[in-house]
Amino acid sequence: MPIISSGGAVAFMATMSSIIGFPLPFALVVGIPVWFVVLVVCFVLFFGRILRRDLVLFKDLLRSIVVLICQVLLTFVYPAYLYGFVSVEPSNQKFYVMLLPVIKIIAKNWISYCLGNKYDLMPQIMIFNVDVFNSLYVSSSMQNSQSITTMMEMVALDALLGYVSISDISYLVRDILRLRRKIPKEHPLKTASFLEIALRIIEEDPHARDRLALRRDSSTAVLVRRWSGPTMPAPSRPGSTLSTSRQVLPVDLPASTIATAPERKPVSLQPEPVEGSLNNVFSLKERQRFVERSARVLFTTEFVILVEYTEVIVPFIYSIYTAAMYYLPNHDYYPQIQSFSDAGLADNLGRIIAFGFIELLSLLSNLFLWICYTIQNSLEHNGADFSFSFSWLKS
What are the transmembrane regions (predicted)? Predict the structure, then answer.
């Protein structure tokens, strides 16, 4: 199907070029609708019968098409933004650059709304489309900027968005810590991590996984299900077995031949108390909130790390690609590097690489801060004794 749709788009662009002229104005923008229509028609021809039978699958397909439309629009919106950035006066670029986070937020909310509960698809689709585009055109704006103020504003905007993301994680962690303080000192899970506590809650309450899967915030429900073992079946409704089975007895059988079971005491369905149980520590609402907050921390952290990685790697890829294109014979066909000299190329790419190193420092600080803290905390010299006996003080 991709080969058929791509062939149709290329044939259409070649036909339009022969009629209008070459190069065809906005050739890729003209070819994308044809590619998209041919792809949808082929998909319907191959899988139309299945889609008519499965309405849920059909709705998921429509949502995926809307997400694809957003991805296609980004290929037009960001180049239009860059054209406007280059066209405005250098003194106005510091105001124009504010459109970048606006475009990014709108695109991410669009994709998030259309994906619905497809949580595990959100990071890869959002980051490898929206964030890659955003980082790429931040680098392009850096290259075309003639104002130090504008470049500093880009760095400040990136730092602000990173601070907002870290603040979201800190808010969720504070809520988790408030709940952890309710665990008694003698409890085995007093010094456990929040993830271990969340897994214990799910082990004790199998329905917590189902409640977690219904929330929009939890892409880690799959991870939690994998770690916490098989799901216990939900109890059937009262009387459900009576409606599906009957007891058949002979009609005229003497009463003496009918065996009667001895009377038994009713079996309690309440679970036996388990060592280290959290049922008596947290209420049902608190257990649910603890699991939900833990899942949201993992979900948000995954996003933050992937976004930071994207913002680090894209400026370096852009710089390598631009430098390679400058020394190729066809660099005359790229308007952005036509007027570059060797000194101008080094100056422009130097600003982009400097921005990439700033992003790298941000990523390393987020990674190594907690890694170093965790490793150093186990060192004897730091006095981390969770038994609170502090035996070295008594010797």
Answer: 7-26, 32-50, 62-83, 154-173, 297-321, 352-373
Residue pair 382/376 in contact (Cβ under 8 Å)? The answer is yes
**What is the per-residue pLDDT across 229-260, written as a single tens digit (0 to 9) for each?**
433 334 444 444 444 444 444 444 444 444 45
Residue 119, in any domain of the structure: yes
Against a cut of 0.85, is the pTM above it? Answer: no
Half-sphere exposure of 301 (CA within 13 A, CB side): 15
Name the token pair of 3.
């080969």
Contact 323, 352 (CB under 8 A): no
Q: Specify the pLDDT at position 124.
A: 80
The span from the CA of 384 to the CA of 390, in Å, is: 9
Domain range holding 288? 87-230+277-379
pLDDT, tens digit, for every residue of 158-214? Answer: 888 878 888 888 888 888 888 888 888 888 888 888 888 888 888 887 777 766 666
Sign, Cα dihedral of 310, 311, 316, 320: positive
Residue 75 within a domain? no
Torsions phi, psi for 281 (to 5 deg): -95, -45
pLDDT tens column, 339-367:
777 787 888 888 888 888 888 887 777 66
Torsion of CA 197, 201, 203, 207, to 10 degrees: -150
In angstroms, the Cα distances linking 378 to 13, 65, 372, 383 are 64, 51, 10, 8
Q: Is there a domain that residue 168 lies in?
A: yes
Q: Which residue's entry shows tokens 């191959």?
A: 46
CB atoms within 10 A of CB 48: 12
Judging by beta carbons within 10 Å of its beta carbon (0-12, 13-18, 19+), is residue 30 exposed, middle or buried?
middle
Closest to 111 (Cα-Cα) out of 331, 210, 316, 119: 119
Classify residue 348: in a domain, yes or no. Answer: yes
- Count of domains observed in the chain: 1
